[in-house]
Design a protein that fits this description.
The protein is α/β, with parallel strands linked by helices. It has one domain: Metallo-beta-lactamase, Chain A (4-Layer Sandwich). Helix content is 23%, strand content 32%. The protein contains 7 helices and 16 strands. It has a 7-stranded mixed beta sheet with strand order 6-5-4-3-2-1-16, with helices on one face. The protein has a 7-stranded mixed beta sheet with strand order 7-8-11-12-13-14-15, with helices on one face. A hairpin with a 2-residue loop joins strand 9 and strand 10 (121-124).
């Protein structure tokens, strides 16, 4: 599989027969190079959205229309977009699994919040979530935005992900220390890719604390729009 970090929490995943864009925030993302947009979205088959906040969902509708591909996420938000925006969607819920080509995606819990912009301020957008993304006997855990949860114990035991794409910037999510604690206590990752950091000065700017905290784990400090294989 080949992954490309799009900055913040966005990833391009070339996995199995799919090209998944996960939380692709491109427009207005201060760290995403606008001149690489075409490369980021080329050949995409599905859009996965973990929750409604704009730094995760802002480009979903436009990309769905432009690429003529479905948005995949929590049933409430997907149903709303299908009814009001006319886009193609695949809505499911926590504990549910969908098959995207030969890739299996299971929605799991996260601990955060989820809203979209409404006429009178923020409007509820279903619930925040993470994803277990599996192909060929390997599983990636995409945490979405979350804090440490006791749920991570059974998630690690049941799904046994070998790769963790973990929010780790602090302030809005786990920081590097908390993400490292979760990785060590609840999972047996071979590889961890930190995300949701370096985007703004408010967030952590270095993964050094994670590298120090997880000896023996391959910490991939990804560069934006530089693909890497796992």
């Amino acid at each position: 599989m080949r992954l490309t970090w799009l900055g913040h929490s966005g990833f391009r995943m070339e996995i199995g027969d799919q090209v998944l864009l996960v939380d692709p925030w491109l427009t207005g993302n201060p760290v995403f190079p606008e001149d690489r947009r075409a490369d980021a979205i080329e050949g995409a088959t599905h859009l996965l959205v973990s929750h409604g906040h704009g730094d995760h969902s802002a480009d979903a509708l436009a990309l769905s229309r432009e690429l003529d591909i479905p948005v995949v996420g929590i049933y409430d938000l997907m149903s709303h977009w299908e009814a009001t925006e006319g886009v193609s969607v695949i809505g499911f819920n926590k504990g549910g699994t969908v098959q995207l080509g030969d890739v299996t995606v299971t929605m799991v819990n996260a601990c955060h919040s989820s809203t979209i912009a409404g006429e009178n301020g923020p409007a509820a957008a279903g619930s925040e979530a993470g994803f277990m993304i599996s192909h060929g006997g390997r599983t990636i855990y995409f945490s979405g935005d979350t804090d440490i949860m006791a749920d991570m114990e059974w998630m690690g035991d049941l799904h046994k992900p070998e790769i963790g794409l973990l929010c780790a910037g602090g302030h809005f999510t786990m920081d590097m220390a908390r993400a490292s604690y979760a990785a060590k206590k609840y999972f047996d990752f071979k590889t961890v890719v930190p995300c949701h950091y370096k985007t703004f000065p408010l967030l952590e700017q270095s993964a050094g604390a994670m590298v120090d905290a997880l000896p023996g784990v391959d910490i991939v400090e990804a560069e934006i729009m530089v693909p890497f294989s796992l």
